[in-house]
Amino acid sequence: MALRAGLAEILAFGIEARFALHERGAAAIAAAWSALALRPVPTRKQNAAHTLSALYFPSGVDASLVTRIAERGVYVAGGFTRDSRAVLPCRPHGLRLTRADMLMRTIEAIGGALESSGHAVDTERAIRRCSPRSRRRPSDGRLEARERAVALGGSHPDWKPEFDRPDGWGRLVASIYAEYDEALVLIDPLCPLAAGDAERFWRKLDEDVARLARPLLVLVGSVDHGRSADAVAARYLALGRPVRVVGDAHIRDNVSCTLNATFEEVALPAGLHAAPVPGMSPGERAFFLDPWRAAVFADAVIGSGDGRVRVAPPSWGVKTPEGRDLYDRAFRPALSSVAAMRPEILLPSHGEPILNGGTAARSRPDRSPWGQ
After folding, report:
1. Looking at the structure, do residues 143 and 127 belong to the same domain, yes or no?
2. Strand boundaries in 166-306, DSSP class E
3. How far apart are CA 205 and CA 233, in angstroms?
């Protein structure tokens, strides 16, 4: 089973993307070691492995450092040099440990152990050097594709004036762009209608796809959110880029775009979670983006303004007695599981986003649904 899971991760984005991921992880953690004043054993960069670090102990620090690191939950081996003064972290940037949270955990453990050994280091600086994106936040919704995670706004092509009612939805909807080490991720992408905005949208996206040279992963949040997924896939497949459009298995035959795979069939980038939200339209998912502490919603949550959100009403779900029963039983518990992740940023497709204080906004489960 472990072999199957590992191969699925590699094949999801391709072996070349996996090699590139290891190379970026090695460069990032090398910057952290430099910030901690840890000298690598290899004297030439080309002789250093991408998935293993070999580091000399700082002057004045003895082999008890290995034990101090282990006490912090990270295990390393003593070195094999003549005086045993090298530390070899257990592949902190190889295999699944390319995850940003595990890289941070490794750096924190080694930095803390050095400090407890009486060696002055700046662990926070090392963490920042390793992963600048951990300090980045989504923008305010403008059509910009420059930050690591960005909320994009656009007019929905199927919107009608009669939808703008108390329990309806407005014309302007959002989609999400996020850069992960394994892939460039687009959630419910929607190309703007206006020619000028559309040209700008594609130009910015083209620039970022070329800059990152990573596979594209398009995630579809519900059966009604096929939007521009096919257009994105067609454009970049024609340019020779790896693209996968992924959605819930239950919507494969009914969504307006073509799904290449389902959430059950692919391994998402580390730090990206897709949580089912039963009781809404088929295939509803909420996404949680670890690096930005951000929760993304298709239709389940609506931004109501003034730093508040409302849950979707039953009328947005499946309009059958069974659908209403599922809404009553499972909808709010599913949202509570997302709230338990303590998001600081809430990015609903409909309504105003909350760019800070998201945990407090989602902690009001007694608020009536949207339009009621």
Report:
1. no
2. 172-179, 184-187, 216-219, 243-247, 261-262, 272-276, 285-289, 294-305
3. 12
Q: Which residues pair with 245 in a beta bridge?
A: 218
- Examine the domain organization and report whether 120 and 164 are in the same domain: no
End-of-domain residue from the set 102, 132, 162: 132
Domain of residue 44, CATH code: 3.90.1150.10
Q: Is residue 165 part of a domain?
A: yes
171 and 61, same structural domain?
no
| One domain for residues 289 and 323 | yes
Tell me the CATH number at 234: 3.60.15.10
Q: Name the pTM for this structure.
A: 0.66
Q: Is 153 strand, coil or helix? A: strand
Mean pLDDT over 237-249 rounds to: 95
Closest CA to 286 of 217, 333, 352: 333
Exposed, middle or buried: residue 276 (CB in 10 Å: 0-12, 13-18, 19+)?
middle
pLDDT 10s digits, 254-284:
999 999 999 999 989 988 999 999 999 999 9
Q: What percent of the chain has pLDDT over 70?
A: 74
60-107 per-position pLDDT tens digit: 888 788 888 888 888 777 665 555 555 555 444 433 344 555 677 788
Q: What is the DSSP string of 251-282?
A: GTTTSSS--SEETTTSPPPTTEEEEE-TTSST
| pLDDT tens track for 201-225 | 899 999 999 988 899 999 999 999 9
269 assigned to some structural domain: yes
CA 302 to chain centre: 21
Q: Which residues contact 247 (CB under 8 A, 6 or more apart)?
A: 219, 220, 221, 255, 257, 259, 262, 263, 283
Q: Could you list the residue range(s) of the whole structural domain that residue 356 is in?
A: 136-362
Looking at the structure, tell me whether residues 221 and 327 fall in a common domain: yes
Q: Token pair for residue 325?
A: 């029963």
Instruction: Work out how many domains the chain is built from and give that number.
Output: 2
pLDDT of residue 254: 94
Cα radius of gyration rounded to whole Å, the chain: 23
Query: Can you tell me whether residue 294 is helix, strand or coil?
Result: strand
